[in-house]
Design brief:
This protein is α/β, with parallel strands linked by helices and 196 residues long. Helices cover 30% and strands 27% of the residues. It has five helices and eleven strands; from the N terminus they run βαβββαβββββααβαβ. The protein has a four-stranded parallel sheet. A three-stranded antiparallel sheet has the order 6-7-8, with no helix packed on it. A two-stranded antiparallel ribbon has the order 3-4. The longest helix has 19 residues. The radius of gyration is 21 Å and the shape is elongated. It starts with a strand and ends with a strand.
Length: 196
C-alpha cells in the first residue's frame, strides 16, 4: 500500500517546525516533502544583529540538511497554484499530487498601508533589508560622531503582527551609538499604533 503524501509549502520557521512535528508524530508512515522557493533556511530572529555587523550568512542553513536528517524531501520551486479538488499543486514546471497539504508560506510586510513608508523607511524583514539597514546605521554613527543632529524614528505601523524586532533594533541602536561615542547628537524616537 502506497504511503500518503504530505506536502508542506514553505521552508521558513513555520514550514520546518510543521514538517519536523509531522515526522515525529507520523514516523515513516507518510512521504513528507517541503516545497520552498528558497535554497536556504534563514533564521530571521537572529538577523537583528546584521545591521550591527553580523554576517547574514551565519544565520542561514541549506534546507536539504535538516530535511535529510529527518527523511523529509525537498523540492526547490515556486508554487503557482493549488487545486484542492484534484489534490495537486502546480509548480513552475510541473504539477504534483498530494494527500495532505500544509500551507506555511509565511507573512510579508505591507509597507503600502502607511503612505510614504515604502519610499522613506527601512523595513526590518529579511536578511537583505537588514544588510541595507547596516549602511544606515553606519551613516547615523558617523553623523553622531561628527556632532550632526540626526533623528531616527522607529515606527510600528497599524496591524503589525510582531513588533518585537523593532523594539530590539531601537535598543540595540541606542547601545551601539553609546559605545561608538556617537549618541549625543542622535535623537531616537519610537512611535507605535499598538494599544498595549
Amino acid at each position: 500500500m502506497a504511503k500518503r503524501s504530505v506536502v508542506v509549502l514553505g521552508g521558513g520557521c513555520a514550514g520546518l517546525e510543521t514538517a519536523f512535528l509531522l515526522r515525529r508524530r507520523l514516523g515513516d508512515s507518510v512521504d513528507l516533502t517541503i516545497v520552498s522557493d528558497r535554497e536556504n533556511f534563514s533564521f530571521r530572529p537572529a538577523t537583528i544583529y546584521v545591521p550591527f555587523g553580523a554576517d547574514p550568512q551565519r544565520f542561514e542553513l541549506p534546507l536539504w540538511q535538516p530535511g535529510d536528517r529527518r527523511s523529509i524531501g525537498l523540492i526547490r520551486s515556486r508554487v503557482r497554484g493549488v487545486d484542492t479538488r484534484a489534490r495537486r499543486f502546480e509548480l513552475e514546471r510541473s504539477r504534483l499530487p498530494y494527500d495532505c497539504l500544509v500551507i506555511a508560506t509565511g507573512a510579508a510586510p505591507c509597507a503600502d498601508e502607511v503612505p510614504g513608508l515604502a519610499e522613506h523607511a527601512e523595513l526590518l524583514w529579511d536578511p537583505e533589508q537588514m544588510t541595507e539597514l547596516r549602511a544606515t546605521v553606519e551613516r547615523v554613527v558617523r553623523a553622531g560622531r561628527d556632532g550632526v543632529t540626526t533623528e531616527v524614528l522607529f515606527l510600528v505601523p497599524p496591524h503589525a503582527g510582531f513588533s518585537a524586532p523593532l523594539y530590539e533594533c531601537a535598543l540595540m541602536l541606542e547601545t551601539w551609538l553609546r559605545r561608538a561615542r556617537a549618541r549625543g547628537a542622535v535623537r531616537l524616537t519610537l512611535a507605535t499604533a499598538e494599544s498595549a
